[in-house]
From TrEMBL:
<dbReference type="InterPro" id="IPR017941">
    <property type="entry name" value="Rieske_2Fe-2S"/>
</dbReference>
<dbReference type="InterPro" id="IPR050584">
    <property type="entry name" value="Cholesterol_7-desaturase"/>
</dbReference>
<protein>
    <submittedName>
        <fullName>Rieske 2Fe-2S domain-containing protein</fullName>
    </submittedName>
</protein>
<keyword id="KW-0479">Metal-binding</keyword>
<keyword id="KW-0560">Oxidoreductase</keyword>
<dbReference type="Pfam" id="PF00355">
    <property type="entry name" value="Rieske"/>
</dbReference>
<feature type="domain" description="Rieske">
    <location>
        <begin position="33"/>
        <end position="144"/>
    </location>
</feature>
<dbReference type="InterPro" id="IPR036922">
    <property type="entry name" value="Rieske_2Fe-2S_sf"/>
</dbReference>
<keyword id="KW-0408">Iron</keyword>
<keyword id="KW-0001">2Fe-2S</keyword>
<keyword id="KW-0411">Iron-sulfur</keyword>
Length: 373
């Protein structure tokens, strides 16, 4: 079975392109939307500097409310444009003014003015451009399109829409940078077997409560999902929700994992976004929405739990790095590592489909996986 939405993605033909052959732990998924910031973090007239996939990116918002993104380097003398300010001049509209020599750039990256020029110097400022990035603001999140073409490209699909974004804005947001390539961060996130050893809280589970699991998986748009099911009996944290919760866990390229929990008419969405900063650093952002009463009463407890999980995972990443620096061969087993294998297959198919200018074909097939945790 193949998700029908996958067939709708028809990339711009690139007849001379070749599919990347980078090994696991190298390179990035391109021609994709990456989570960059909460919309609430991008204030009116603000200029914020981010690094995405090793590229400096300015994300700003005009006074009219438009969010935009551009390369955070002035092409004149390389000063970061985010260190400047948003100004408005007659005939120019709102522009980003470089702090070094005052060159001004419109939100689309076109140079609007070079103040040092005199009237007798017929230099066409609008021939100079800073790379601009397509940007979308939806569900309170800001996404940036990272193209495979260094000159930029127009998106051929939209960012994901997440189920369960209810109860107003996010109830809880926590982020941490891991010293890890995004591939290792993604595989660590979806790994079903590490929990009893890395996350040994009394309210979660331990190695003494391990038992066999059997979960049905299905292909989804640009990824796959663990089909909706009742949580495992040794996952104690779900019990605070009461009732009979049913959960579905979805992964989507380039690095989104979300768990949508339904408890009667109430919902909880736990979204984890993995954003590569550069080759050896990845930002993990966990965002929770819910209209369940428990988030009003237990938020401090939940925040402590999320921070504990992130710190434990970050500590394990640091331990893993001790071994990875020797570039060892890695052994992947069934069924516990099948999701990790799917991720690598999805990445390869994504690159090949775009290089061959054809629709993406999801390599994941419906199956049931079994493991102990």
């Amino acid at each position: 079975m193949k998700a029908s939405a996958d067939a709708a993605v028809k990339p711009t033909p690139k007849p001379d392109a070749a599919a990347p052959t980078a090994r696991f732990g190298q390179g990035f998924v391109r021609d994709a939307w990456y989570f960059a910031a909460l919309a609430s973090d991008v204030g009116e007239a603000s200029l914020k500097r981010y690094e995405l996939l090793g590229e400096p990116v300015l994300i700003g918002r005009t006074r009219a409310g438009q969010v935009y993104a551009m390369r955070d380097i002035c092409p004149h003398r390389a000063a970061p444009l985010s260190a400047g300010r948003l100004v408005e001049r007659p005939g120019e509209g709102e522009t980003v003014e470089c702090p070094y020599h005052g060159w001004r750039f419109r939100p689309d990256g076109v140079c609007a003015a070079i103040p040092s020029l005199v009237d007798s110097q017929p230099f066409e400022a609008d021939r100079i451009r800073v790379r601009s990035y397509p940007v979308r603001e939806r569900q309170g999140l800001v996404f940036v399109w990272m193209s495979a073409d260094p000159r930029g490209s127009e998106p051929d699909h939209e960012p994901p829409l997440f189920p369960g974004v209810v109860g107003g804005g996010p109830k809880l947001v926590e982020a941490m940078d891991f010293d890890s390539h995004v591939d290792h961060a993604v595989v660590g996130l979806m790994d079903p077997a590490h929990g009893p050893y890395v996350h040994q809280q009394w309210w979660w589970r331990s190695e003494h409560s391990m038992h066999e699991k059997a979960k049905a998986f299905e292909p989804r748009e640009h990824g796959f999902a663990m089909a909706r099911h009742a949580p495992s009996s040794n996952s104690r944290a779900y019990k605070i929700l009461g009732g009979a919760p049913a959960t579905e866990i979805t992964f989507r390229l380039p690095g989104y994992r979300w768990e949508h929990i339904q408890v009667g008419e109430r919902q909880v969405l736990a979204l984890t976004s993995l954003t590569p900063i550069h080759q050896t650093r990845t930002r993990i952002t966990q965002i929770f929405w819910s209209d369940h009463w428990v988030f009003g009463l237990a938020r401090p407890f939940l925040r402590q739990g999320v921070r504990a999980f992130l710190k434990q995972d970050g500590g394990m990443v640091n331990l893993q790095n001790e071994g990875l620096r020797y570039d060892p061969a890695l052994i992947w087993i069934d069924d516990a590592d099948t999701q990790a294998k799917w991720y690598q297959q999805l990445k390869r198919e994504w690159s090949k489909s775009r290089a061959e200018a054809r629709p993406f074909e999801n390599p994941v097939k419906p199956t049931t996986l079994r493991w102990r945790s």
